[in-house]
Design a protein that fits this description.
Oligomer: heterodimer
Shape of chain A: globular
Helix content of chain A: 25-40%
Number of strands of chain A: 6
Number of helices of chain B: 12
Low-confidence stretches of chain B: 1-24, 125-141
Radius of gyration of chain B: 25 Å
Largest interface: A-B, 55 and 54 residues
Shape of chain B: globular
Chain lengths: 180, 522
């Protein structure tokens, strides 16, 4: 019976997470923890949905390199640019919110209340609702979405917040690798 | 309820393992300024920024970026300078050192400030309410063995407890670095081993356990001061007299031999001070310092556990206040009263002045420290050690002469074994300062180090960093008393008077109970 309760709790929390938390294609090694942002010299991760040459819903993702008056520059193994006018939506992840750790704490906190006897009626929903809400909130803290926000807000988290520097060798600009 | 206990404990163990992650739940506020708006900042605004973050990123017009630490903005010369790292446009590190950056070539200046997230605060409070952390202590609950990772080292007479890491770091926000002298360690060859154990009912969060090797000449010894500096001395002389309230203790204090001097606490007020006056004869005029080998008695441990007991069922709430810096355990009035060992010398007017304070926490292992002395007068030197009565066990005092500062070599472990089996993951965690190794009661790790040349040419120290989490026992939860807890924080003098009789009733038996309650894995 206890195993059944735990299973239901896990399903409930995972459902909240699936529908609630901010999603992205950012690689697991990418985002710096908040305390490293002061010394991190790379751009945030950007996911872009855009239209190009008559083809809708194209997707791209990589390190945000720079923003100019008419384009966004991002890099994977190469540097790319997309006209701002072609972009339908974009999501920037500026740092690691660690919301998954918070989620695991929520799960453990929730099932720990099973042994609280009749207090379960108070503490269990407190964990499930409060804890899950906390984790969902936390997951959105480092997220900036276009068109909800302007591209100007993205620029602060670009590798070159001042714009693409004149004269740089664009062929040598690549996104951060795991060992950097 | 009893049958649920193992499951509940398991859940709590895993929960506590993840608790360190709470330190990652901060949010970041990034400010990007043009050089014009940065130059327009007032001194107060600059000071405000610096108080929140020591780092400044300077983005250059050519795509390079400086990450500066301890930076200074000089509007008069139109520069900003500091020490740090220069990266190119591909973000390869080009140079580390001190830089002077002319603002003419600067595009933007960036700062990043951390703030705790609201989500983190909410979760911590939930955790405080429901986390049931239990400790099994058979005798006196406040004499439960505890106090962070213990380190065992081989010396001439076998394996002995010689260091305890970061004893006062009882919460994530109190994570600290600790340097312990491995003074008696047997040395020889190019390999060095020590054992790191979790012998208490605590969770230990270890960020690093590095060996420090300080080169020294033949016949010399090296000591660490409070600022992490290392001093070599060839001439170390014992006191000729050591006056205490109980008489001359020079026989106990003159050699580092595990025969300790200690006093009993005051029966009426636990914060009462006492003085040991040391005398040294025929002291030459050279840079010198006092060497003290000591550890705490269990008085401070008792007060800590009593405070935790007064928190009762609301430990999580109080810990969340600590994590949010609403209360600062190390800076509160109680800590200031109990204090460390103050080292005083006389000036030409006969006034006694403090040269430094030894505030090494921990009741488990004697540690050696050096307090450099101010310029002293005369060949016959008197030094006073002032401390809280009954709070310290002192094994050794000496005067180290002709001090020369030395640069240490830091050595990471090259191999880690857990319960005798090579553990590459633990090695990787201890060698990466962004990660931590979590240990649970009964865990035992052997750390191996490679020393350049022969270990006999070096004085060895252990540099550990981390924090630990006490498991609060059920019996303490019965003692919950917000008034008494508040008294400890806000009116510590009266709290120390009130607790004196209770502590005196257990003082003489505490040592025995403490050491017998060490956790041993079945």
């Amino acid at each position: 019976m206890r195993n059944h309760k735990m299973f239901l709790v896990l399903i409930a929390i995972l459902s909240f997470y699936y529908f609630g938390c901010a999603s992205s294609n950012v690689p697991s090694y990418w985002s710096a923890n908040p305390d490293k942002m002061a010394t991190d010299v790379f751009g945030g991760w950007v996911d872009i949905e855009y239209d190009s040459l008559g083809v809708k819903d194209k997707q791209a993702g990589g390190e945000l390199i720079a923003i100019s008056s008419d384009s966004i520059y991002y890099a994977d193994s190469l540097l790319h640019s997309i006209y701002k006018n072609d972009i339908a939506s974009a999501r920037l992840i500026s740092y690691n919110s660690n919301y998954m750790n918070m989620g695991l704490l929520t799960f453990l906190g929730s099932i720990s209340t099973i042994s609280n006897g009749w207090f379960l009626g108070i503490t269990f929903p407190m964990w499930l609702i409060g804890g899950t809400t906390s984790a969902i909130t936390q997951s959105y803290n480092p997220v900036i979405d276009f068109p909800k926000k302007h591209f100007y807000d993205f620029s602060h988290y670009a590798r070159f917040p001042q714009g693409l520097p004149e004269g740089i060798d664009r062929a040598r600009i690549k996104m951060k690798t795991k060992d950097k | 309820m009893k049958s649920l206990l193992p499951v509940h404990l398991f859940i709590v163990f895993v929960f506590i393992i993840l608790l360190p992650g709470c330190s990652l739940f901060n949010n970041v506020t990034r400010e990007v300024n043009t050089k014009e708006s940065f130059r327009a900042l007032t001194e107060k605004e600059i000071g405000d920024i610096k108080s929140k973050t020591p780092y400044l990123k300077v983005h250059m017009k050519n795509g390079y970026v400086y990450v500066l630490n301890n930076w200074v903005n000089d509007n008069k010369d139109n520069i900003v300078y500091g020490d740090g790292v220069l990266y190119n446009e591909e973000r390869d590190s080009l140079k580390t050192g001190e830089f002077i950056v002319g603002m003419d070539s600067v595009s933007l200046l960036e700062t990043n400030v951390l703030k705790p997230s609201g989500a983190q605060t909410a979760l911590t409070i939930f955790a405080g309410i429901t986390a049931a952390i239990t400790v099994a202590c058979i005798m006196n609950p406040k004499a439960c063995f505890g106090s962070c990772p213990t380190f065992y080292v081989e010396d001439d007479s076998g394996l002995h407890l010689r260091a305890e890491g970061f004893s006062s770091s009882i919460a994530p926000s109190m994570e600290a670095t600790d340097i312990d002298a491995l003074y008696r360690a047997a040395k020889g060859g190019e390999e060095f081993h020590l054992e790191m154990r979790n012998e208490a009912l605590e969770t230990h969060v270890v960020r690093k356990a590095d060996l420090i090797a300080v080169p020294k000449g033949k016949g010399s010894r090296v000591f660490a001061d409070n600022n992490g500096n290392f001093w070599e001395s060839k001439t170390i002389i014992p006191p000729v007299l050591a006056n205490t309230e109980e008489g001359d203790a020079v026989k106990l204090l003159g050699s580092f031999d595990e025969k300790e001097w200690f006093s009993k606490s005051d029966s009426n007020y636990l914060g009462t001070k006492e003085i040991i006056e040391l005398e040294f004869k025929n002291v030459p005029n050279s840079k010198k310092g006092i060497v003290i080998g000591c550890r705490q008695t269990l008085l401070s441990t008792y007060l800590l556990y009593q405070a935790l007991a007064y928190m009762g069922n609301n430990t999580g709430y109080w810990l969340s206040l600590m994590e949010r810096q609403k209360i600062k355990i190390n800076e509160n009035a109680m800590s200031k009263i109990m204090g460390g060992i103050e080292v005083l010398t006389q000036d030409s007017s006969g006034n006694w002045n403090i040269n430094g304070v030894l505030d090494e926490q921990g009741p488990l292992a004697d540690d050696l420290h050096l307090i450099p002395l101010n310029k002293s007068l005369g060949k016959n030197l008197k030094v006073r050690l002032r401390m809280t009565k009954g709070n310290w066990r002192i094994d050794y005092t000496a005067l180290a002469l002709d001090l020369m500062q030395r640069d240490p070599i830091r050595i990471k472990p090259n191999e880690v074994l857990k319960e005798g089996i090579p553990d590459k993951e633990s090695l990787s965690l201890l060698c990466d300062s962004t990660k931590v190794l979590i240990t649970l009661p009964g865990d035992n790790y052997t750390l191996n180090y490679k020393i350049p040349n022969n270990a006999e040419n070096y004085e060895l120290f252990l540099e550990s960093r981390g924090y630990y989490l006490e498991w609060i026992r059920k019996e303490w939860q019965q003692e919950g008393n917000t008034f008494y807890l508040t008294q400890m924080l806000m009116d510590p003098e009266n709290a120390l008077k009130r607790l004196a009789p209770e502590f005196k009733s257990v003082e003489s038996k505490m040592e025995e109970s403490f050491w017998r309650s060490r956790y041993a894995k079945p």
